[in-house]
Amino acid sequence: MTEQRTALITGANRGLGLAVAAELRERGLRVVVTARDEAEARATARDLGPEVRGHALDVTDQQTVDRAREEIGPVDVLVSNAGVLLDSGSDPLSVSLDLVRQTFSVNLLGSWRVAQAFVPDMVRRRWGRVVLVSSGTGSFSRGLFAGSPGYSLSKAALNGLTQLLAGQTREFGVLVNAVNPGPTRTRMMPNAQRTAEEAARDIADAATLPDGGPTGTFRRGELTFDW
């Protein structure tokens, strides 16, 4: 009998994170949804099904991350989805550096903080899947998008974190990959053509890769992008 894996998704109370949680539940994983607001996380969990758990987790707050780790325990799959877009319409010469700092606090350091909390257990158990939700705006091969400079640079840095974590964990059966979901219709991009459910399938594919699968890649669906 195959062991049921446990997946934790950050920022899972709406949008893409919620769609990922629903997709992974459909694929047979035990799902833990997290959000800054505990009531929202628990309400989302109830909506998804009786076996889904909801917990408070603010990726910018070390205490809540540590508390979530104590309450939830080890997980097999981590989807780092929580993110913000605060500087749309800006440019590198005039963007508020306070907005840039806030963006990095969530998009880069938040993902890093959660990885430090949950990935060491995967290493000790010699199995794990980590997906960092990135963006094509952070690809050097395509050129960073100057219209949201803080966001784009934070995703480029997240791609770098992907490679660092993959290099540190590849010999322990832990696969770490970044996924570019493409422009996705969420509160962040309400006019995008791609639905959250469509994008969630790409993320879920990376979260359920077979043993020996790729690690340290920047992906969308079956495609692998240059950094």
TrEMBL record:
Signal peptide feature range: none
Superkingdom in the source lineage: Bacteria
Family assignment from sequence similarity: Belongs to the short-chain dehydrogenases/reductases (SDR) family.
GO MF term (any one): oxidoreductase activity, acting on the CH-OH group of donors, NAD or NADP as acceptor
Pfam families: adh_short (PF00106)
Domain Ketoreductase: 5-184
Organism in which the protein naturally occurs: Kitasatospora kifunensis
Name of the molecule in the record: NAD(P)-dependent dehydrogenase (Short-subunit alcohol dehydrogenase family)
